[in-house]
Specification:
binds iron/sulfur cluster; six-stranded parallel sheet; alpha/beta
């Protein structure tokens, strides 16, 4: 199914779409207030973009430096070329410790690698401990947003889910009650766990340590309670020096939720005494993306979600309509690089208004890259006959002034006098969801000429 077909399903529930739209716009506004409160915000964005640019140009060196320093600290380092290798490395570690229960804090990389179903197929229990992730896990769904994984669910829906899975009392969606119940339930899971898996927000080449950001402290809770901590990171998570952390930490939380800083920014530098700390460094298509000159800066992404919160298409189509681990504008750049045919509709799921590029804390030219993908897709992927023919005709009309004027006149006439069923037909996808604007009698050219004449 294409993005627009999936979006049409989400759009059936108009009240929910409006609520989704409003909720995300609220987060976007919080981001604006937070950004405007920081002197030199643009300077910070520029600096972050330059640091990331430097990292991508010297990725091999920084990764080797990181590995050497991490090993010196006593961290066990593993390399995975793809999702399959990542999953089997994680499983091998879990098995070596006879572990049966795993607690996992939020990690989009493990989502991308489909780690949960893989471990579950090996009879390992995996519990997502981020509240939003936990909600989508028990609902047997995937996250619809990278920072707010359950943003597509109302509190009343969560209430029902908890009644079904945790045996809670009906609370009319009382967030305090529901959060407390989840906390009690997850506390037991933490206490029973053998292994903790976390993501990595920033890995520092200079020190061989890494930082995990959460608002709930669930990564720390898991990592500190169990004997084995496995951190999974994409190769692009490297930053060169510890002094660069301040730049990214100031940008990340403000861009994501409008907070000055994430509640927990936990630094892991070495295993605690008697415990093991593993790090799995994963490529899974990233070096290929790096080789695509026009798209390499998409690897600057620090997964703040701001481009999703601001995108008018994402807000009104829901994250699941993208059918990809990373939805929204940045996902629409990353996904076609992995499977062009499957994700060929995604770069078209944008108004190209540029709002995503404007909010991106690491200055990725998101809308320009989406436009670039479109150009590749129309050449490489078969296009529907109707779309191809219409665009061909449009090209001819637009390059010929007489034809253009004639088409304009005919369209104005048709829109005014043709029967409705002809105007709101299959050819007019725009008219599926909205009325066309009222038609004026003249075009701009005639109006302008008449104005000038009257002035003389
Ligand atoms: S592309 Fe930019 S705005 Fe979007 S999630 Fe990544 S860092 Fe945030």
């Amino acid at each position: 199914m294409s993005h627009s077909e999936k979006a049409a399903i989400f759009n059936k529930n108009e009240a929910k779409v409006n609520w989704h739209d409003k909720a995300l716009w609220y987060v976007r506004e919080k981001r604006d207030n937070a950004a405007h409160g920081v002197k030199g915000w643009e300077y910070l964005r520029d600096t972050a973009s330059k640091i990331k640019g430097n990292v991508l140009s010297n990725l091999d060196n920084y990764l080797i430096e990181f590995e050497a320093n991490a090993l010196k600290n006593g961290i066990k380092v593993h390399w995975a070329s793809d999702a399959k290798e990542h999953n089997s490395i994680v499983y091998k570690i879990v098995k070596e410790h006879n572990a049966k229960k795993v607690v996992k804090s939020k990690s989009m990389l493990t989502e991308e690698c489909h780690l949960n179903p893989y471990l579950e197929s090996k009879n390992i229990e995996v519990v997502d401990t981020d509240l939003g992730e936990y909600i989508v896990q028990i609902a047997k769904e995937t996250p619809s947003h990278i920072v707010l994984p359950a943003i597509h669910k109302t509190k009343e829906e969560v209430d029902e889910l908890f009644q079904e899975h945790l045996g809670t009392k009906p609370s009319n969606g009382n967030p305090e009650y529901l959060t407390n119940e989840a906390r009690k339930h997850l506390r037991n899971k933490f206490l029973q766990a053998d292994v903790a898996i976390t993501g990595v927000n920033f890995a520092i080449a200079e020190t061989g340590g890494f930082v995990v950001c959460t608002n709930e402290g669930n990564a720390d809770m898991g990592a500190h309670l169990v004997p084995v901590h496995i951190a999974c990171m994409g190769i692009e998570k490297i930053i060169p020096k510890e002094e660069h952390l301040g730049v990214f930490l100031r940008l990340l939380a403000r861009s994501a939720t409008g907070q000055p800083i994430t509640t927990y920014s936990s630094h892991f530098n070495k295993p605690a005494e008697g415990k093991e700390l593993h790090i799995v460094i994963v490529d899974n298509g990233r070096t290929e993306q790096l080789s695509r000159e026009d798209f390499r800066s998409s690897l600057h992404c620090i997964r703040c979600g701001a481009c999703m919160n601001t995108c008018p298409i994402y807000r009104r189509s829901g994250g699941h309509s993208y059918d990809a681990t990373i939805p929204g504008p940045i996902g629409s750049i990353l996904s076609p690089g992995k499977d062009l045919t499957k994700h060929s509709s995604l770069p078209f799921a944008s108004t190209l208004c540029g709002s995503c590029s404007n909010v991106c804390p690491v200055k990725i030219n998101i809308h320009e890259q989406l436009y670039k993908w479109r150009q590749i897709i129309v050449k490489e992927e078969p296009q529907p006959f109707v779309k191809k023919s219409i665009l061909k005709i449009a090209g001819k009309v637009l390059e010929n002034r007489t034809l253009y004027n004639f088409a304009g006149k005919s369209a104005r006439f048709m829109l005014k006098y043709a029967p409705k069923f002809m105007i709101y037909s299959k050819l007019n996808a725009w008219g599926n969801a909205r009325d066309l604007p009222e038609v004026k009698n003249t075009n701009f050219d005639d109006w302008y000429k008449a104005k000038r004449k009257n002035k003389k």
